[in-house]
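## Example pair
The file below holds two records. Each record gives the amino-acid sequence first, followed by its structure token line.
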Amino acid sequence: MEAYKTEFIEFMVESNVLKFGSFTLKSGRKSPFFMNAGAYTTGSQLMRLGEFYAKAIHDHYGTDFDVLFGPAYKGIPLCVAACIAFSKLYGKEIRYCSNRKEVKDHGDTGILLGSRLKDGDRVVIIEDVTTSGKSIEETYPILKAQADVKIVGLMVSLNRMEVGLLGKAGALDEIRETYGFPANAIVSMAEVTEHLYNRPCQGSIIIDDTIKSAIDEYYKEYGVK
């Protein structure tokens, strides 16, 4: 596993973003783990987060794109932080763009924040986590309605490795099949489990035998076959 991946896993734990226990998800599923990107709140956390995203985006998509698009609301700070980091690490200026939940009819009008989109723009979408892929159902038509853009790919921080909306394949795989662009994550839950299982992190064992058993049972029901 690449060094930045193990660092990111420990960073999520350190930032109290990735938790283990018993959680009820928006979907109604009872999950033994939960990720909340809203817990990244400080300048140093956002700086490091942007660098992790930038490294993963560079690994998967290189530098041949123009815009990072972060869907409102959590995607807004993600794409801003990643744009700053991309410029710092790779010396390329990438424009940031996000959407508003409501169209603004005065001043800076329209549905977009940041850069306007134009025909021919190559766009990478950035999100926190994809459980079912439902968010892309909303994001994709917004992008295509603004200009004739090319979606280079999607980058999320964590691949939960659960079946998508169609219930047949993983959410990221379903996105690839449905929309025709690649979807990747900084780390997967398999990598998280591999790294943290019975290994000290922040002075304690985060995934012990009990948590590992709960994760295994969860994936028997909801995991990608």
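Second record, same layout:
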Amino acid sequence: MKKILSEKKTSKKKIVFIVLAVILVLFIAVGVAAYALTHGFYKKTNYLSNEDAMNNYTVPEEEVDEVAPEEAQGEVLTPEQEAELEQKIAEFSEAEPITNDGDVYNVLLIGVDRRDTSWAGNSDSMILMSLNYEKEQISMISLMRDTYVDIPGIGMRKLNAAHANGAGPLLLETVTKNYKIQVDRYVSVDFNSMIDIIDKVGGVELTLSKDEVKVANNYVTEMCGLKNLDPESYYFANEGTKNCSGIQAVAYARIRYVGHADYQRTERQRTVLTKIMEKMKNMSITELYSFAEDILPLVTHNIPEDEMWGLLAKAPSLFQYNLVKDRIPYDGMYKVIYVKRQDMLVPDWEATIAKLKETLY
């Protein structure tokens, strides 16, 4: 009898062991299949390591949109005043620590202005996207292209020159050095890629004034010419609100000479990005995955695979976060100077960095 009971117990143990082994094999198989699927998908994206970022680009001779001294809007500095300002900026930069917080994920969204792919291009749109998981907050802070910054290895220049000289990695290094927050990741697009991304979400709803329509249509003509398209079907017929195609939305985001110049242009860029996010907010997980599959090959980035999937997994909850939008220089915290034959924006760095860190962290 004891022998029979012992055999039954042994048999049950074998069955349990076999069941557990089968379950384990299934989990491994599912895991391997999921990894193969997602890894294959990620390999299609335009990932560039920081070391390879400039492999296919040349660094052009510096081109400056010169402003005649009599047309300068900023304070004209003497060489001595310029040296004094640079010293003051350097001293603050040396004293102020760079903030890095594990609860905050920073990624720089870069819009590149170029007509060909032989060079990295100037970064005419730079939006710091900061995800604060603890505060459940997304911050979109535009960094204005004409800001006077210290570009590592280059010197004091406009912020948008960093990308032309070293693509995403040098721009990240420049932002980290000058704005005193650690930014290691970037996603960049040019005009054509942004047009395609907006078209893939079905366009975005925008409201244009009469003056904005006139200027936007000039950009429509230019972009359609570059893409060999008939601009007639893309022109804005009149002012008002309408669902805009990719070409129309990018034309709107490029408007610079209506309203408050480049300050208002950064607002238009944040508006377009917000509209895209609103479209994504209503997507299911499956739709988000499909959308990511469509757009990731259109952008250049340095986000590692594990981080990419972590962000995608968090997407549904991220869309519920509070959204904060702003730009730097902040109102009342900068001055305009005329140096190197250009008008430059010089933030009050101490007050600016304090406000930025308070907002993000």
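Notes on the second record: DSSP finds ten helices and 14 strands in the chain. The radius of gyration is 25 Å.
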